[in-house]
Batch of 2 targets.
Target 1
Amino acid sequence: MRGIVDAIPYARFLGVEVERREGALECVLPFRPEIVGNAALPAVHGGVLGAFLELTALLHLLDESGSERVPKPITFSVDYLRTAGPATTRARAEIFKLGRRIANVRVVAWQDDPARPVAAGNGKFLLSDGRRAPGDAGPAGPDA
Amino acid sequence: MPADRSPAPPRRYALASLFGPGQEGMVSHTPHAAHLGIRVVETGPGFGVCALPFREELIGDPARRVIFGGAITTLIDHASGLAVACAVEELTAIATIDLRVDYLRAAAPDVVLYARAECYRLTANVAFVRAVAYERAVDDPFASAMGTFMVGANRSDSSFERLIAARRGSGR
C-alpha cells in the first residue's frame, strides 16, 4: 500500500500515511500548519478534509481491487460534521456497491473518537477495468 | 404580480471595500490556500473567482498527469467560502456544511485552474452556493459543484474581520 501512496504525488503533498488496523485500511493525516484553513481556530481546511476523504476512498478501492490504475472520480460529496482541530485525522472507507463499471464508496473521518466523526464522504468512481477498450468513451466523457 | 412593488433597497456587502481582483489578503489568512498557491482573481457581490497554479505535487493520476480531485475540491471550497463572504451584509464566520463536486472531465495538465463560485441564495443561517472549475472558459468547465454553508457559525473568529480592521488601521 505504501507504494501506491508514493505513486500519487498529491498523497505525498498532504503527508498522508496508511495503516492496517483490524484488517481494515486506515488513512492517517498528520496535523501540520500547512493544512490549516482557519488560522483563528485553528481548524483543518475543509478542502483538505474533502481531499483526504476522497484519497481514502481511492486508496481503499485500489487496495481492494489490486488494480494498478487509479479509478476516476465521477462525483464526490462531503458532509462537514465538526471542526477538525490541530490533531491527527484518521479515515476509513467502505465499498457499499462494487459494480462492473462504478463503485460506490462511503468514507468517515475522525480525530480522537471514531464515534464523533469530523467529516463523512460519499463518492462514485469509474473503474478503469471495465469492459470498454482503452481510449473508448466512458459515461463521464472521452477523457474523464 | 403586484404592480406597485417598491424597489428593493441597495444591498449592503460587508466586504464591498475589498471587491476587485488581486485581493491577496483573502488568501493569506488561510495557510493551506497560501500553501497551494491559490490566489483571488476576482470578487464582487455574491461571487468570487480563485486560481490554482499547476504543480507536479498535486497530481492524483500519474498515468494521465491529472490533478487530484481533492485539490479541485479545495479550490472550489475556497472560492465558495469567498462567494459567501462576498454575499453577507455583516462579517461573520462561515463553515461548510456540505459540498458535492462532479468531475465532468479530466482537467488539462500544466495550466492554471480556475473556480468561480456564486452564492445564489442567502438566508439567516445558510448560504447556498454553486461553482464551476475550468481552465480557459467558465462555460467549458471540467468540474461543477454545489455547496451549503453555515453563516454566523461562530461570531468572533472571522479572519475577514481582522483583514478589514488591519486595512482600516493602515489607512487603506
Target 2
Amino acid sequence: MPASPELNRRGVLKVAGASALGLWAATATVPAASEENSAAARGQAAARPRSVIFIWLNGGPSQFETFDPKPNASEDIRGPFGCIRTHVPGVLVSELIPQLARHFDKYAIVRSLAHRNANHSSTAMMTGIEGGDTPFGAVVTKLLGSSEAMPGYVHIGSSKGDGTQFVSAVDNLDAGSLGNAFAPLRVRSPLAGGVQLGDFSLRDSVPPGRFHKRQELLAQLQHQQALRESAAGRQMDQQQSRAAEILSSSRVRDAFDLSREPEVLRYRYGANHFGQSCLLARRLVEAGTRYVQIKWYHVAAFDAWDTHGADLPGMRRLEQQLCPRFDMGLASLLQDLHDRGLLETTLVVAVGEFGRTPTLNKNGDRDHWPFCFSALMAGGGIHGGTVVGESDRKGAYPVSDAYSPADFAATIYQLAGIPVATDLRIRPFVQDGLPIKALWES
Amino acid sequence: VLLLAAFHRRLTRGCLRLTFFVLTAVALHCHPAASEEFTPALKLAFVSNREHYWYPHVYIYEHDGRSRGRIVTSLQPQDKRLDHQPVLSADGRWCVYGFEMEGEVGRIQGWDLAESKPRDLGRVNEGSNAVFSPSLSADAGLLAFCGWSRAGGSARWDVFLLDLQQQKLLDLPGLNTLEFDERRAAISGDARWLAYSSNADDGAGLTDLRLYDRRTAQQLPLLEVNSAATDNYPCLSGDGSLLCFASDRAGGAGGLDIYLYDFQRKQMVELLGLNSPGHEQSPSITADGRYIAFVSERFDGVGEHDIFVYDRQSARLLDMPNLNTDRDDYDPCVIRIGGRVTAGN
C-alpha cells in the first residue's frame, strides 16, 4: 500500500531524527572538544589533518608483492614478481605497483606491523585492539566532531546486510561502544549509476520551499514538548535541525556526485569500484567529511586480497585485478590530494588485517601471516619517502621497531589531530600504544 | 524484401503504411530464415562471474563478425570451483581451461564442445603442486602450460609442453631457468613458437616477454619488444608472426595497454582506437591476426572487467551484444570459424 503524501512529508523529518541522517547530524553537533586540547598539544603532533581516508584492503595483502619485496630471498620465499626502485636509494617496491613507486615521495611505508591473529575476523588493524569493536572512524568523528554540513564518517563499499559474506572485520563494525550516533554513513558503491542518495534526497513531490515550511511547522509542534524534555531531548531536536540541513543541502549531494569530475580525471583513478571510491573519498574530504573509510571489494577470498591460490584466486588475481586497481587508484588519490593542497591536511592509510606467509605454498602463493606486514601512510605531516621498521631477510618477523595495532591506532589518532599523550579520552582506544613518531620526526 | 519495400512505397495512406510495416516486420522476424541468418564467424571462450559471484565459469560465445552474437553454452559449472583462462583449438571443438577447487591446487581440464563432455588431459595434473595458464596448438595436439615447482623443472614456475596424444612431456632445452620464473606460456597455432613471460635479470625490464623457437631450441630475448616497464600476457598468431601483449610502458593511453608486434616487419603495429585511459589486458589474437579480444575497464562498459573485440581490418571495436554483464567478464580466447582455419591460439 502506498504511503500517503502527508505521511511521507512528515515522515521525512521524523525519520531524520532517528535514521542515519540524524546520526550524522549527531556527529556533526558534537562539540569539537578536542580542538582545545589539540591547540594545547600543538607542537606535539606533526600536523593536524582535519580528515582521514582509511583504505581497508580486506583479505590481507601480501607485503612481498606490494611494499616489502625480498628480491634476494631464497626460492621458496621470493615470488615471481620483480621490484622497482623508488627515488630513495635502496628502497624497492613490487613491480606490481609502478605508479606508487613513482609517487613514493608522497607516502611512507611501515614494514614492521605485527600482531598474532591470523583470522579475517581480526579487528586489530581497524580498532587498535584485538577484539575491539570501535573503529578508528567512530572515535575520530566522536572526538573531533564535524563542523561542516557533511556526514562526518562515511564508509564506501559493501556492508553487513547487503548480501556480503561476512568474513571481514569491516563488515561488522559500526561504532562499538560509542553507539550508533557515530556509525558511518554506508555507501555501497560509487559506480552503477552513481551513489544512491535517496536517504537524504528530497522527494520530487516535496520542493525545498515546502520542505522548509513543514520543517517550521514540525518545530512549532515540538517546541512545547522540547521545553519539557531533558537536555538530551533538546540535543535530539538540534540533531533534527542538522539532519534537515543535510537533507536540503545541495552541497552534500554534489559531493557524492562523481559525474561532476572530468572524465579524464575519473579515468586516471581507474574505471572501477576502488578507483572511483578513492575519487569519491577525495570529494568528500574536500567538502568537509572528517573520516572516509574505503573497503576493497566485497569478499575477502573471492575478489579481495586473500590470495592463497595459484591462478585466479592467487598470483594472477594479484597481477590482473588487485594490484593494477590498487596502484592506479591510490597513486591518483595521492597525486590529486597533493595537487589540491589537501595532502597536508588529510591522513591517508592503506592496510589489511594482516600480511602473507613468507614461504610459498603448493600454489606458489601465500597464506595468512600476522607476524610481520606493511602499511602505507601518507599526508598529515608524514614525511614522504620514509620507510619505518624493518622485516628480517625472510620477511617473517620485524628485526627492529615492531609496531602493534595499538601503536598503529595511536599514530592514526595523533595524526588525525587527537593528542594521544594528553587527551585521556583516547586512552581506552589505544591502551599502551605509542605513535610511530619516526613517520614525521625523521 | 525488395518487393515488399516497393509495395510499401506504393501505399499512400499513413495508417496503411504503418500497419503494413508492422506486419511485415513481425512476419520477417518470425520466419525461420530470420533466425537461421546468424552465421557465426568468431567464437570466444571466456570466464564470467555472471551466474555465480564467487565461482566464475567458462562460457562459449559466437559472433557473426558484424554486430550479432550470443552465448551458446557454458562448460559444466561446478560449485566451489573457479574456472579460468580457457583456450580453444582452431576448429573450435576443444576447450582447455584452468580451474581451482576451493582450497585445492590449480589444475587444468579439457572439454569436448562437440560432445559436451570432459576430455582427459592425462599427465598435465601430475604432482601435488599447481599448474595453470594452458595454451593449445591449432590441432589441439600440444598443450603448453606452467607448473609450480614441478618434477622435471625448477623449484619455481616453469613452462612445460605436453604431447596430448603421446602423453609425453616434450623437451624445451634452454627455455626454463633454475633461478627465475617462466610463466604465461602461449603456443603458436603451428606449435613452433612459445611466447612466455620471464623475470630473468638479463631483460629490459622486470617482467619481460620471451620467445622460444622449438625448431632451433633457441630462446629470443625480444629486446626490440620489451620495455623497462612490465610486459606480460603474451599471445601469438597462428604462425607466430604476430605477438600481442599488454604493457604499462610509458607513452601508452593509460595503465596497461595492448600492443602488437610484427616479427616480419620488425615493428610495432598501430592499434588505432583500441586502448583507453583504463587498463587493457589479457589479449587473444585470431590465427590470422585480424581480431584481438581483450579485457578492459571502461566507463562505457557494462561491468568493471568487460571483453572487447577489435577488428584490425576496420580499426574499430565490434559491437558484441549479449557478451558482457555487470559482473566481471574476462580471460577471452578468440578464434575465427567458418572461414580460414589453419591455426589457433
